[in-house]
Amino acid sequence: MFAAMIAAIALFAMAPHPAPHATSPTGLTTAAGGTQTVGMAVLSRARLAAGGAAVARLKTLHLHDRVVALGMTGDGDEWDDLVTGRFAQTQSTSLGPLAGTQAYDGTHAWEQDATGLSHYTDGAANMNAAVTQAYTTSLSYWFPQRRPGTIAWRGAKKIGDHSFLVVRAVPAGG
């Protein structure tokens, strides 16, 4: 779903905008002197389309949802620090074995299982997933100073009647 949101934002960002600087072969604007990559130019336009400076002022996000899984129904909550990427996701005890918390505190991945016991889950796969989620949670593809990563332009893609600009964002350690 997150990839679909980025694709939709990138699609919206393709709408005509005035070109304040030199133009790349793809028709996207780049910074004066060509120092900004095409991938960053695509993401810059997507950030502007999503609210620009208003997005930079967002600090935290709380999501509440209703979870229906394996015949059980319960609540879920997620708290996100949009600047650091720290997060916690909790599922209610009414979800039985699916209850618990998964989190990343900026250093460690950890979880609290259905019994209430908490422990680190710093294995390679869990840390990779936590660092990747912290990168996306902190919107670091729009704000590279928040968490390190690389941005690469992958080209334009057409699916049916829809055109997309494809950018790959990879967090360091993710």
Fold and architecture overview:
With 174 residues, the protein is of the alpha+beta class. It has 2 domains: 2-57 and 148-171, no CATH class; 60-137, no CATH class. The protein has helices at 2-13, 38-50, 53-57, 124-137, and strands at residues 60-69, 72-81, 87-91, 100-104, 109-112, 118-120, 149-159, 162-171. The strands form 2 sheets. Strands 1-2-3-4-5-6 form a 6-stranded antiparallel β-sheet, with helices on one face. The chain is globular and about 50 Å long. The two termini are 18 Å apart.
Global mean pLDDT: 81
Output the radius of gyration.
19 Å
Spatial ordering of strands, largest sheet: 1-2-3-4-5-6
Q: What is the molecular shape?
A: globular
Number of domains: 2
Q: What fraction of the residues are assigned to beta strands by DSSP?
A: 25-35%
Q: What characterizes the major β-sheet?
A: 6 strands, antiparallel
- The helix-and-strand class reads alpha+beta
DSSP strand tally: 8
Number of helices: 4
Order of helices and strands: HHHEEEEEEHEE
The CA-CA distance between the termini, in Å, is 18 Å
The residue ranges in which pLDDT falls below 50 over 5 or more consecutive positions are: 1-26, 29-36
Fraction of residues in H or I helices: 25-40%
